[in-house]
Amino acid sequence: MPASARHQVTFRNKNQVTGTFITFEGIDGSGKSTQLRLLANYLKQAGCDILLTREPGGTPVGNRLRAALLDAQEEVDPLTELLVFAADRAQHVRRVLRPALALGQVVFSDRYADATAAYQGAGRGFSPELISEIIQLATEGLKPDLTLLFDLSVDDSTTRTRRRTNGSQRGDRLDSENAEFHTRVREAYLQLAQREPERIKVIKTSQPLELTHERVKETVVPFLRSRGHVPHHEVETSSSEFSR
Ligand code: TMP
Predict the structure, then answer these.
(1) Which of 238, 219, 180 is nearest to 24 (CA)?
(2) Rounded to the nearest 10 degrees, what angle do helices 128-139 and 78-92 cross at?
(3) What are the tens digits of pLDDT across the range 129-187?
(4) Residue 175 phi/psi, 5° resolution?
(5) CB atoms closer than 10 angstroms to residue 203
(6) Residue in 129, 149, 134 with CA at minimum distance from that of residue 22
(7) DSSP secondary structure letters along 164-227
(8) With contact defined as beta carbons under 8 Å apart, do 224 and 230 qualify?
(9) pLDDT above 90: residue 243
(10) Confidence at residue 12, expressed as pLDDT on a 0 to 100 scale
């Protein structure tokens, strides 16, 4: 493809975003991935087709970057970490997110750019200016239409992660950072939500799974319906869905 045509494609995609982009964020062990799965199953039954993706690892090359980034045995310099998350995101935005949104799809991503602001910004201490420059470079300005921030205390999230990793320690390289790190990340996420209350909705996950699921549905279903993605009938969620 000649360079001019390539630019045209990119340009056209950027101006034809008709789908809906929803992201799921929260500290490790906050319950976001479980809630994403429950919501996606519910919406599928309601006749809403959703593209499920994640960061890092929403593309084949991204999966390889994910394995390297999260390997607890790797010693990754913080600057390398920041740039590799950005590389994963650039591939994801250009090869998956923009094309899907241009086709009018609903896209749910398990993490996106807010994670870089929280983990590499507040967690690792990179300046807000550098973080927003890197995010802008990787996303080319693509922002979620809605973000659900799953919030839980660091103590409770650590208990959950330990349960998941058979009691010993937290799982991957970032999971195993100390409580101060996760506290900074959590606070940064909550500050982002305060700054952008229209886009970022905070959902407490200290309550039972079913109640959190109800809160999630109350937030997302009317939003999707208002954008013409969900038919106007309700669907029962099967109780077996809640046994993890
Ligand atoms: P996950 O366990 O939710 O799949 O996320 C993988 C880890 O990567 C999690 O500890 C958060 C971290 N992460 C960052 O530090 N920066 C980022 O930009 C992203 C997307 C994830």
Answers:
(1) 219
(2) 30
(3) 999 999 999 999 999 999 999 999 999 998 888 777 765 555 788 888 899 999 999 99
(4) -50, -40
(5) 22
(6) 149
(7) HTTTSS--STTTTS-HHHHHHHHHHHHHHHHH-TTTEEEEE-SS-HHHHHHHHHHHHHHHHHHT
(8) yes
(9) no
(10) 35
User: 135 in ligand 1 pocket by Cβ < 6 Å?
Assistant: no
Query: Is the distance from the beta carbon of residue 28 to the nearest atom of ligand 1 less than 6 Å?
Result: yes
Question: Confidence class of residue 6 from pLDDT cuts 50, 70 and 90?
Answer: very low
Q: E strands of 104-153, at which residues?
A: 106-110, 146-151
DSSP 122: I
Cβ count near 27 (within 10 Å):
31
Query: From edge to edge, which strands make up the β-sheet containing 20-26?
Result: 50-54, 106-110, 20-26, 146-151, 200-204
Identify the pLDDT of residue 159: 87
pLDDT over 90 at 126, yes or no:
yes
Give, using CA atoms, the residue closest to atom 20 of ligand 1.
55
> Token digits for 98?
């923009």
All domains in the chain, ordered by first residue: 20-230 (3.40.50.300)
- pLDDT tens-digit series, residues 13-69: 444 468 999 999 999 999 999 999 999 999 999 989 999 999 999 999 999 999 999
Residue at token pair 């398990």: 110
- 24 close to ligand 1 (CB < 6 Angstrom): no
Nearest residue CA, atom 10 of ligand 1?
174
DSSP conformation class of 228: T
Cα(143) to ligand 1 centroid in Å equals 18
Residue 28 Cα to ligand 1 midpoint, Å, equals 8
The distance from CA 62 to its chain's CA centroid, rounded to whole angstroms, is 14
